[in-house]
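quick one, 168 residues, struct below
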Amino acid sequence: MALRQYLYKGRILNLALEGPYEIVEHADAVAVLVEQGGKLLFVRQYRPAIGSETLEIPAGLIDPGETPEQAALRELAEEAQLTGELHYLTGFYLSPGFCDEKLHVFRATHLRAAYAQPDDDEDIAVEWHNPRQVLRDAREGKVQISASALAGILFYLCERTEEDAAYE
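---
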């Protein structure tokens, strides 16, 4: 195995070469699926990397020393001013061909109000949307969504489909 040679070390990512491979080392992240009355909670925010607003489920990086669950509760409070009981759904790598970032997805239930100061660089709006409509709008290019939002929508829709099948 080739040694990893670092080209750049930054605040949230490192760029390295390992033999012929370009590798991005990135902190792991969390995302939180919140459902109420058939609608999912999204945050709308401008993302400079793509020059566009996105609809995302509450999400963010895991800080050093935090567990994924602690990070999920913190992000939910910072972005949506909510807390609740968390249930782990899954974890997956966002782009394992070049990046080691893993996303841990949780569902929040038994919601209640909470307060945490949003990050200084975040200008977000909390919105509740029908997940099927968000998926349609994303397919039609009417809205940009993140991978975490897509995962949340698909988890929610799969569970609805399984519940519907149980009643047939």
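The longest helix spans residues 147-166.
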